[in-house]
Amino acid sequence: MKNTDLPLLLSFLRDNKIPNIIKKPITFLGISKQPHYENVWSNIYAFFLDISGEHGFEDLFLSSLIEVISKKTGKQFTFDSNFRITTEFTTQDNGRIDLLLCNDYEAIIIENKVFHLLNNNLDDYWNSIKVSKKQGVILSLQAIDCNNIKNNKFENITHIELMNVVMDKIGKYISGVSDKYLIFLKDFYQNIINVTNSMEKELINFYFNHSEKSNQIAEIRESYIKHIICHVEDAPKHINEKFEKPQTLGKRFTYYRNITHTIMFSFNFFYCYMKHFQ
């Protein structure tokens, strides 16, 4: 560890309010380790966009999508409620349209983006759908500069923009809806919030403005942990007892155990505890 000015760090800690880290609610997708998988999001959208689906929300998602498209284009957008939903639709050049809402004469072509860059052949997507009325949509986590969208027939809508409209309109649809699907919908919404705002702006600004001192404090903590680990691992040598092989449970605590004694420590504080069970 580099030489550290401890009085300066102590002064920094006294004089600056460190933002609290607010833990985001965990979601089902988070539990399943799939919070940002694009194909999973596409399948969920497809489920809720089906106006006759068993979820019971009818045209909630479709009407919300239409509302946002109208706002983005500055024109009143309409779409027939009699349509088919296809995921991973194969294009002429063997591309994949994430979500296609289509009937015999109109279509909404949706490219779903979470973290991946927009490098898809949108012209191929557009030309592969042979209907007279088409609208392209790029769903993305963050807003995309229009200069980076190579086909001007596609409008960029963020996931949170769409879902905010859904949640604003939901009150008109929840009567008679199963609690199960209401929970699913709210959980999906929370998941999108979690992924969109992976770190609070206050924390980002704090670290950006105080990165050097924050890194120094982190180095001190790491050195402290290594120091404690070294002493705990050395402790059995000073006790006239035979201990089992050390066990490590993540980075929370380590313990040495035999029938009569236990040595344990945590990173919040260090202590040796020896208990006789006889």
Report on this model:
The protein has 278 residues and is an alpha/beta fold. The protein has 2 domains: 6-16 and 204-266, no CATH class; 28-196, no CATH class. The protein has 9 helices and 8 strands. It has helices at residues 6-15, 28-31, 38-49, 60-73, 122-128, 159-169, 179-196, 201-209, 211-234; strands at residues 84-90, 96-102, 106-112, 133-140, 154-158, 247-249, 253-257, 262-266. A 5-stranded mixed sheet has the order 1-2-3-4-5, with helices on both faces. α6 packs antiparallel against α7. Residues 251-256 and 267-278 have low confidence and may be disordered. Pfam families: PDDEXK_4.
What's the shape? Answer: elongated
**Share of helix, binned:** 25-40%
**Intertermini distance:** 45 Å
Q: Low-confidence parts, pLDDT < 50 over ≥5 residues?
A: 251-256, 267-278
The radius of gyration computed from the alpha-carbon positions, rounded to a whole number of angstroms, is 27 Å
Portion in strands = 15-25%
Our count of helices gives 9
Largest sheet: 5 strands, mixed
InterPro entries: PDDEXK_4
Organism: Dysgonomonas alginatilytica
Pfam families: PDDEXK_4
Protein name: PD-(D/E)XK nuclease superfamily protein
